Amino acid sequence: MFAEKVIELLKESERNPDTIDPFKDEKIRQILEEMQTLFIMNMNDANATTENKSLWTTVQVRHSALERNKRCLLAYLYSRMEKIKTLRWEFGSVLPPDVRELLSDDEYEWFSRYSTNLASYMRSLGQDIGYSGIDLTENLRPPKALYMEVVCTTDYGKLELSDGDVVMLRRNSRHFLPAAECQTLVRQGVLKQIV
Amino acid sequence: MDPYEIEFIGENRIVSVIPNFSYDKIYLICGEFGPFRAGLPLNVPLWLAIMLKQKQKCRVVPPDWMDVEALENIKEEEKRSRFFTKMPNEHYMVEAKLILGVAAEDVPNAAEIKTIIKDIWDIRMSKLRTSMDALMKSGGSYGRLDHLTMMEINSVKPLLPSAMDELYRIKMMTKHRTPTANLNSSTISQSGSSQNI
Amino acid sequence: MESLSNVDVSDEEEEITADIVLKTLQTAWQNECLAPEILPHNNDMVECMLGQIQHMERNINKLPKTDIRASIHKMELSRIKFIICNYLRTRLNKIEKYCISILNDERQRMETGTNYLTVGEFKYAQEYLLNMETHLKNVVLDKMPGNMKTLEMNKMAVYPNLQTHVFLKANSTISGVVLEDLVGDQDEEIDLEEGSQHILQYKPIADLVKNGKVQLV
After folding, report:
1. Is the pLDDT of residue C120 over 60?
2. Domain range B3-176, CATH architecture
3. Contacts with C, B 64-103, CB within 8 Å
4. How big is the CA angle at A21 (ends A82 and A79), to the nearest 5 degrees?
5. Nearest to C197 among B55, B141, B146 (CB)
6. Looking at A108, A123, A138, which one is the last position of a domain?
7. Half-sphere exposure of C180 toward its Cβ, with a 13 Å CA cutoff?
8. How far is C31 from chain A (nearest CA, A)?
9. Which of A123, A156, A182 is the last residue of a domain?
10. Domain boundaries in chain B?
11. Where is the composition biased (Low complexity) (chain B) (predicted)?
12. Residue among B28, B32, B34 at smallest CA distance from B57
C-alpha cells in the first residue's frame, strides 16, 4: 500500500506525545525512496495518458500518495521541532548527553539555531538601558514566596547565587534558596521542593 | 490562564493590616504604602499582607464582607435570585482563600465563614451550570454574564468556549453544504487550502 | 529609598506614573494570554518597566540583606518580572505557532506604520521561519523528487482561530457590536454597557480589545 510507512512513522511518534523518540533515519530513507519510485513511474506513464485514458487514474493515485508522503513527513519533522523547542526551555542551551542522542545531527543543528535566536532576542530586551536581568525561561509561575526549601537529588556541585553567595549542592543536602534562582534546577530534577 | 494566575491578579487587591513594627513609607512600583506604625491599621496589597503575616509582622484586618451576618445575607440573596448577584468584590474567592489560609486566627468565626463562602460558591457554580446548559440549548453563540468573578469565569474554561466553538463549526458546515453535496474529485493540482500540520 | 513615581516614557514630555505603566502592562498581559491572535506590542511600557526594575534592583543592593524592605521590594520585582516574562513568552509562542501568517500580515502593517511586533520580535520571527525552512529542506524536501521539493508556505501556514469565543468585560459603553447570525441571516446588534460581561466571538470585538474599550477576562 502507498504511504503506509509514513503512517507507521506518525503513529509511532504519536504514541509518546510528551517524550521524544530517537530520530527514525532508516524509515525516512525508505519513505523518500518510495517517493522516488512513485515519481519515476508517473513520469514514465504521464506521456502515455493521452492514448491510454485508464492510466490517468493510476497517475492520479500515485500523485496523491506522493502528496500524502510529503505532508506526513513534514508533519513528523514539525512535531519533533515542537518537542525540541520545549527542550530548550527546560534544559537551556546545553542538552544532557542522553537527550542529545535522541536528535539527528540536523535536528541538533536546528536546536542550536533556535537556541541562538532565542538568546539574541532575550539579549535585545533592555539592551537600550544596559539591563540584562530578564531571562524568559525563568519566572514561569506566579511567585508565591521569595525563598523555597529544596532537597538536592544528585551531586550537582557549586551554585552561585546572584548576590554572590555560593552553595554546595550535594546529594540529599537541604537548602533554603531564592525561588527565582532555583526554578531551572527544580525543572531539571536536580532540586526537589519540600512542601 | 490557570487558577494560580487568577490568584496572582487577585493578590493586587488592597487590604488592611495592623503591623507590629514601625517604618517610614515604602515606595513600591505599584504605589506608596505606609508609614507603618505599630498597632495602627494601614492599607497594603494582599500579596504584601500575606507576606508580612507569614513573617509574623502584622495582623490582617478582615475585609468588611468577611462577616457571618453579611455573608448569610449574600447567601440568601444568591439563593433567591435567578441571576448572579453582585459579590462583595471581584476576587472574593482569592481573598477568602488567602486570608483564611494564612491569617485565619485574625478572622472571627473563620471556620463558619469558610463554610458559608463555600456554600455561596457552590450555589453560584450550580447556577452557572444551569445557565451554560440553557445557553447551549438556545443556540449558544452569545451570552451575558454580569457579576461573575474572574475565578468563576475561569472555572468554565475551556469547556464553555470550546462547546460554543464546536457549535459554531457545526452551523458553518450546515450552512455551507450545498443541496447537491458531493465529494470533490481530487485533482493533481491541489487547491491551496490552508492546512495545519 | 527615593520616590520613583514619575517616569518619562515618551519624548513628548508626557509624564506617566510607574503604577500606571504597571497596570497597563498587566492588562496587556491578560489580553495577550486570552486573545487568539497576536496583539499590538507595548514595547514602550516594557522598556520603561525594565528601567524601573533596574533602578530598583540597584537600590535594593544598598539595603542590608535582613531589612524587611529589601524582601518587600524583591517580592514586588519578582511579581513584575513574572508579568513581563509571561507576557513576552506568550507573544513568542504565538509568533512561533502562526509564524507564516504573522509575518505576512506584519509586512503589510509595516507599510502603514501600524506594526504589531517589536523590532526584536520581527527579527526573531524571520529567523525562526528561516531556520524551519532550512531544516525541512535539509532533512526531507531536498531529497524529494522533482516538483515535490518546494515548500508550499500557504499549506504550512497555521492561522489563529478568530471565531473562537472569549469572555470580556466592557471598560466603557459600546453600542452596535454586530453578532453574525448563521442560521437566519438576521445579524444581531448588541450594546456592551460599561462594566458588563459577555461571552461572544473574538472577531467582532478584536478592535475593541486593541483600543482598550474592552478587556478580556
Report:
1. yes
2. Up-down Bundle (1.20)
3. none
4. 25
5. B146
6. A123
7. 12
8. 17
9. A123
10. 3-176
11. 184-197
12. B34
Measured distance CA(B87)–CA(B95) in Å, rounded: 12
Residues 71-110 of C with CB under 8 A from A: 71, 74-75, 78-79, 81-82, 84-86, 88-89, 92, 96
The number of distinct structural domains making up chain A is 2
> Looking at residue B140, what DSSP letter applies?
S
| Shared domain check, A29 and A88 | yes
Q: What is the CATH number of the domain that holds A53?
A: 1.20.58.1030
- Domain, as residue range, for A152: 147-193
A86 found inside a domain: yes
| Mutation to test the A interface, candidates C131, C137, C151, C158, most A Cβ within 10 Å | C131
- Per-residue pLDDT tens over the stretch C22-75: 999 999 999 999 999 999 999 999 999 999 999 999 999 898 878 889 999 999
Q: Please give the mean pLDDT across all residues of chain A.
A: 89
Task: Sketch out chain C's domains with CATH numbers.
Answer: 1-97 (1.20.58.1030), 98-158 (1.20.58.1030), 165-216 (3.40.5.60)
Residue in chain A closest to B10 (alpha carbons) equals A142
Cβ <8 Å between B7 and A142: yes
Query: Tell me: the pLDDT tens digits for B175-189?
Result: 777 554 444 433 333
Contact C164, C174 (CB under 8 A): no
Kindly report which listed range (A51-55, A157-161, A191-195, C195-199) carries the lowest average pLDDT score: A51-55
What's the CA gap between B6 and B156, in Å, rounded?
13
Q: Exposure pattern of B36-71 as b/e (b: 16+ CB <10 Å)?
A: beeeeebebbbbbbbbbbeeebbbbbbbebbbeeeb
- The CATH number assigned to the domain holding A160 equals 3.40.5
Q: A-chain residues within 8 Å CB-CB of C53?
A: 131, 133
Q: Is A33 on the interface with C (CB under 8 A)?
A: no
Q: What is the ipTM of this complex?
A: 0.89
Q: Are residues A88 and A169 in the same domain?
A: no
Residues of A in contact with C127 (CB under 8 A): 113, 117
**Residue among B7, B187, B197 whose CB faces A71 most closely:** B197
Tell me, yes or no, whether A137 lies in a domain: no
Cβ distance of A67 and B8 shorter than 8 Å: no
Spatial separation of the C-alpha atoms in residues C79 and A64, rounded to whole Å: 53
> C-chain residues within 8 Å CB-CB of B175?
182-183
The rounded percent of chain A whose pLDDT value lies above 90 is 50
pLDDT digits (tens, 9 = 90+) for B81-137: 999 999 999 999 999 999 999 999 999 999 999 999 999 999 999 999 999 999 999
Contacts of B146 in chain C (CB under 8 A): 195-197
pTM of the shown model: 0.89
Residue A50 has pLDDT above 80, yes or no: no
Q: What is the DSSP letter of B85?
A: P
Together in a domain, A43 and A113: yes
Chain segment C5-20, per-residue pLDDT in tens: 445 444 455 678 999 9
Domain-located, residue A77: yes
Tell me what pLDDT residue C44 has.
Answer: 94
| Ramachandran category for residue A180: left, alpha or beta (phi over 0 → left; psi -120 to 50 → alpha) | alpha
Looking at the partner chain, which of B32, B141, B196 has a beta carbon nearest the beta carbon of C158?
A: B196
**Within a domain: A60:** yes
Q: Are residues A11 and A102 in the same domain?
A: yes
Q: Across the interface, which of B4, B8, B190 has its CB nearest the CB of A67?
A: B190
